[in-house]
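Run log // design_07
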């Protein structure tokens, strides 16, 4: 039996935050999309995490990349053999993704209230997108992830890790964003019904400021 198809409710504060985030990404979307799209080529550990996720979900059903931006990670997942589509809050980002990857499906939407039936997905990738969720609102996002994932479905989170500190807001170039302790983020997802399968911490490479965290999780029954 699948979960009900009612999306998560958002607070007035989060609704205002989402409008601010969408407007900020709309404003820089063209410049953002012109950045190199082969970043993954220089990060073998990141590719390995995505490959593990792909091995767990390939052939099982649809997968969504939530917060897909102009689409390069969605395309990478496609190349790994997944039935994948992208969702992003920014209409301009979605337009650019459709132009760059016309063979893929991209839709405008918010990851806290997805236009999907309960249990419709077998996998979700959130690649540096939950970083913009206000910390108090993040449980709502995880509840929505659980709703749209089938039992046993997989969730992959990529985020900026706080390196021993608490949840910390930082000066993201686009809009408000947060660094998370990996244990705390894993615990929060666990409270929403996700069991950790594995994790990967990567130290910053040249030109990066922060440690990168990755959590691979499975939705419970």
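design_07 sequence
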């Amino acid at each position: 039996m699948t979960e009900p198809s009612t999306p998560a409710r958002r607070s007035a504060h989060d609704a205002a935050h989402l409008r601010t985030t969408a407007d900020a990404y709309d404003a820089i979307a063209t410049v953002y999309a012109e950045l190199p799209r082969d970043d993954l080529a220089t990060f073998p550990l990141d590719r390995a995490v995505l490959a593990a996720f792909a091995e767990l979900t390939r052939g099982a059903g649809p997968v969504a990349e939530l917060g897909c931006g102009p689409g390069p990670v969605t395309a990478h997942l496609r190349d790994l053999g997944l039935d994948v589509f992208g969702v992003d809050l920014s209409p301009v980002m979605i337009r650019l993704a459709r132009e760059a990857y016309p063979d893929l499906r991209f839709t405008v939407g918010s990851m806290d209230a997805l236009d999907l039936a309960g249990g419709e997905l077998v996998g979700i990738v959130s690649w540096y997108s939950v970083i913009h969720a206000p910390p108090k609102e993040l449980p709502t996002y995880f509840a929505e992830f659980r709703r749209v994932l089938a039992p046993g479905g997989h969730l992959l989170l990529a985020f900026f890790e706080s390196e021993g500190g608490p949840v910390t807001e930082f000066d993201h170039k686009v809009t408000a964003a947060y660094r998370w302790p990996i244990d705390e983020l894993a615990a929060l997802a666990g409270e929403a019904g996700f069991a950790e399968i594995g994790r990967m911490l990567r130290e910053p490479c040249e030109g990066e400021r922060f440690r990168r965290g990755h959590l691979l999780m499975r939705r419970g029954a």
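The chain has six helices and nine strands.
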